Amino acid sequence: MAPEFQKNTMYVSNELESGDVQKNFDDDGREKRTGTLLTASAHIITAVIGSGVLSLAWAIAQLGWVAGPSVLLAFSFITYFTSTLLADCYRSPGPIAGKRNYTYMDVVRSHLGGVKVTLCGVAQYANLVGVTIGYTITASISMVAVNRSNCFHKKGHEASCSIESYPYMIIFAVIQIILSQIPNFHKLSWLSILAAVMSFTYASIGLGLSIAKVAGAGHHVKTSLTGVVVGVDVSGTEKVWRSFQAIGDIAFAYAYSTVLIEIQDTVGSSPPESKVMKRASLAGVSTTTLFYVLCGTIGYAAFGNNAPGNFLTGFGFYEPFWLIDFANVCIAIHLIGAYQVFCQPLYGFVEARCNQRWPDSKFITSEYAVQVPCCGSYNVNLFRLVWRTAYVVVTAVVAMIFPFFNDFLGLIGAASFYPLTVYFPIEMHIAQRKIPKYSFTWVWLKILSWTCLIVSLVAAAGSIQGLATDVKHYKPFSTQQ
């Protein structure tokens, strides 16, 4: 047992005599959870709806009117279904009265054990690191887009308007260094709610601009049931690779299982966490699916087979420039919050391990009260300050050195989507419910698992092909075009 937890338990034992323990602590001696359906839903929406929603028009353009929306709906169902299985595994052996598991690795350890715990940790934390680096790049692109939008408005749409993204990566990193001092997920709900509002705002702006473009006089673009046309828009090889990439983008656009258990660990115990989390997952996935389908299909109707990768930062729209600016600011604010949602589990993992390894180190364990103007007293931990600052700096530097890291992120997503979103939830459900081998339920769960494995392999192939193309044109510290 971790020394910190032992101290909490001793403190709880003393408080039991005064009868005040239930006011501040849960039954396991940890700080009392205050999360609700609203805060859990906000965390999910912040994690799921990224600026990638604005690239779904491109994905639909690759797949067409039939396969595009079908794939969107299929993966929304798969994500929701597997998230309900994972939510039931938060406690073990039963979903209502069992022992709490605080992280995804703890859940896998309780239900499966063995080498699968290590595989889970590698997949989860590699994905979290990749996402935070990717968000640094994407947020800087949105900030650059604000300046470019103003430039195009003043100098015309044909102007080069080349702007470096590195100063904006530094600004983003400084903001994250400050926000990273938020101790844990429990204190993050206000930021997630703000980020969720921002995601709705810029998605709605993109949707509104697309509708206006479709309804505009003389609007005519080429669309088809099967997407981009071989021999006209792309070559046969490009069609295959782009389709693979589009399927992967859609599958990963829904994935939030990397942080689901950590979100569930913020929810109060009454009503049961699993029931609240299932409702939060339904609200989150339903909301994102609505926006995904609308932005994807109406965006495709607006731009046709020439849909840009992102119609706000990629300048599918130039006017009204002030609205484009506002939408890109909303994207940046959303990604500031989303960065924290994805890095907090990693912060917690490292800090818990260090507390266990060096329980007597004051540098790691001691808290110092600091008076913050207008905010009152705040507890500062020197290890948390140093390690989290170092992490943000490293992710920012990697983002600067590898401007095509989003293709790496696609590969990381392909590698982590299957084990974290599909394989582990299904395997733990089978183990928890003791489903007989070769029974009907066992067979169809395995078919779902294998199908998603094929999707991950296909998407990984598309990402590797994209990486190979990018490396050929790689110029470190290049100017944003």
From TrEMBL:
Keywords: Amino-acid transport, Membrane, Transmembrane, Transmembrane helix, Transport. The gene is AAP6_2. The lineage of its organism: Eukaryota, Viridiplantae, Streptophyta, Embryophyta, Tracheophyta. This is Amino acid permease 6. The chain crosses the membrane at residues 37-61, 67-90, 188-212, 280-301, 321-342, 385-402, 408-426, 447-468. It is found in: Membrane. The keyword Transferase does not apply. Residues 34-467 form the Amino acid transporter transmembrane domain. It comes from the Eukaryota. It comes from Datura stramonium.
